[in-house]
């Protein structure tokens, strides 16, 4: 864009000092962003850096505690998304919000149906959609059913839907996460046309190479605040990664190695299809079946994932979210069926239920503690029992041993410094960090042999983070095998004995944490450095 | 004050406020119906002049409350894990006729005879509830829809059985058909002795149903099962957070089946107080609708046995007033209006009080954060 011509125009969006607090956590702190009109402005940051909260604030889904939002030079206060839409801001969500059994046209007008004397004005709607589509190069047949469309087309429908409501500023939340490379190129072409048409695009991503190729300006968010503005012509992916990850945080360094020779957990050839699990035919070995799936061109969420974890070892898995981490965890926990073999301490546990795996000594710190880790409306001691309901001290025959469970909860509160009025407090009254410490304490009790720690310090304050790192290190020294999955690269590099990179369901690199930089790791994670397992 | 006690007190206070409000709303309805609210509420508390009338009133109330209590328990077991067993209605009717019929096929000493009838009723109810459970687990059929459909089948099947295969001899001049009468060994002894202990006259009719004792034991059993056992914990966990339960090794399919069958088995007992204590057969005038009322009773009692007992007694108390209300020239349908408003308002009150309790706990937990000593950040 010609900057001189725009010099007088007010910025499309200007955020000043936006701060948003949740109980115990500051999600956004003093965010300052200026988005010039007619540009593609990228906002980059790690998972959990506060990008989504920021976008929710901008789209009126949440109200900031402090700070101002101005749109086209006018200060605005949004209470609902309708207010944001009225101000010309539209949001394209990462997960499409389309009705499958409606046509494209019906989906676009849904909620903003044009009427003539009470009847749906289909002809008018079609005309308007075709106008929008041709002027922005967004070609979709308005009469096709959405269920017949591919992912790229669905995204175009989402964009059209937003444009149809008169948006001049589009927020795209990780739009490329679901696309294959060719579709990404098409999307970028569309975005360039939108830009040429004078629209403003706010593009949220953590895929740095994509950001560099499409954005006119970049803002980096780390730990809930804006840390830098960058010009994509002058910055490299490595520098951006450095800005994203930062380096002023306490680094979680493991001191001497405690890795033993005993293999605690061995996974071989884990393969998972995207379209649901079908058991392999009896006479076909798992590896061969996986090969066949690959040859047939099925989308695989996990593709021949094999690894070993020794006693006293932390295996770190790096990867951008959505590259198979959740699937790997669910396969190891027995929540989701998978092809391949899992051996724990010499025993084949591939066919075991989740309960049996837990009883055999697998601990699990889930990536989303509210979804998988806690009963929010239950007391802390009941949360202590969760996952251990068949084990000592929580169980006594068919009974729940309430006294022992309470006593053990009190022990966790003491040892793990959980700040709470007592064991009868409901879990949801606690702050995120304290909830997480309770979970860590719970999963460490009962002498686990293998621990899955998924984002163990996500959304917790710095103090709790250091405490959780200490607990992980101590457990490792005591011989625990740990699978660590994290988006915090410092955490991964600092804690892990071995690092593997998961990209599109495959291990693409095995790295030594003692001589890897976050930038290089980031390169493998985003596919910027093509890697094979042998690296 | 401990968090648990505070929550309990708040709940009771909320329920009381809801009932007072419901009385006010009902007064408006009564006035609209052209009657005097004072007369109506006087009739509500008027158990009669004579001792005998008072005893009869109390007996009617408790006899009504016993099946409602069992129905509430049955519904609550499902509700606890977000399973909406709307099929209690069908389950208890089909169980009642099967048990009433099986009871006529043999004669054994009373304890055995009664025990067999109870077991048959529970088994039939449980098996009938197994159908929607299997449909849900196997094919993901929503249990609300399947149980509603199975209600129609059960109700009509019961109606067919009582006229066809299971029918007894109809006495001359009787309009209703029924199963053959149960032998006397299947008659559950009544509890009129309780009144006699206080020197009061025995109530008329079947008296105070002895099944009350079974219901109390059942309530205790359900409480112990839900609050103290591993099974109860898994039910609670599944209800509060299904994905956390799954990740914790709770098998969701097993839980759906066991909770549904347990709910159905309890539902199977709903008809027994009436059959064993009073009618001694299953007839075409068998009390309907208890399963649906059980949903309201469970909601009112917050799915807890003690709460359900209170709710069932409240419903029994209101239902008892049908007669006195008619004498006071108040349309008895006022009772249904009151029951409806009470349930609605209590649900609203529950929501409000639980939010209040929550905010208080959040404040208390935040205070603990306030007394925070800075954590040393170690590398």
From TrEMBL, chain B:
Superkingdom of source: Bacteria
Keyword tags: Cell membrane, Membrane, Transmembrane, Transmembrane helix
Transmembrane segments: 58-79, 114-131, 143-162, 207-226, 256-276, 334-353
Pfam families for this protein: BPD_transp_2
Subcellular location: Cell membrane
InterPro entries: ABC_transp_permease
Mode of membrane association: Multi-pass membrane protein
PANTHER family from the UniProt entry: ABC TRANSPORTER, PERMEASE PROTEIN, GUANOSINE ABC TRANSPORTER PERMEASE PROTEIN NUPP
Name of the featured protein: ABC transporter permease
Natural source organism: Nonomuraea indica
